[in-house]
Amino acid sequence: MVAEVERTAPALGTALKQAVPLAATDSEVTLRMPAGMQAASLERRRGEVEAIFEKVFGRPMRLVVVQGAEAGRDEATAAPSAGSIAEVERAERAARSAEVRAKARTHPNIQEAARILGGDVKDVEEL
């Protein structure tokens, strides 16, 4: 669904990636968005999003946007919950990056170079 929105309207796709899905029924999709420019853009272009949803689902779909933190929760102390696509993508990138750094640190050729040079691997930077 987000991929279709992103293909049709890239800026809206980027905004939707910031949303956390809360609920979906036969006639509506409810998302939580952090307050800000992307939420305002999504509200302003709601008709476009709903038209794309209708095309994807094959029936009219209403978009409901809830802004801010979950009801009754303080954003600063909120426990992790289902995340947005953007949060998931960031976590996946961080995990891949950590894996690459770990492999580089333990690679036999790197270890041999550090031994020959009398050094140590302190940091690994991805290019």
Give a quick set of tags describing it.
single chain; 127 residues; alpha+beta; 2 domains; 3-stranded mixed β-sheet; 3 strands
Give your account of this protein's structure.
- The chain is an alpha+beta fold.
- The chain has helices spanning 2-8, 10-17, 37-44, 46-57, 85-106, 108-117; strands spanning 20-24, 28-33, 62-67.
- The protein folds into 2 domains: 1-69, DnaA, N-terminal domain (GMP Synthetase, Chain A, domain 3, 2-Layer Sandwich); 84-119.
- The chain is built from 6 helices and 3 strands.
- It has a 3-stranded mixed beta sheet.
- Helix 1 packs antiparallel against helix 2 (10-17).
- The chain is elongated.
- The protein starts with a helix and ends in a 10-residue tail after the last helix.
Estimate what percentage of residues fall within beta strands: 5-15%
The assigned structural class equals alpha+beta
The CATH topology label of the largest domain is GMP Synthetase, Chain A, domain 3
Give the CATH level 1 class of the largest domain. Answer: Alpha Beta
SS summary, helix count: 6
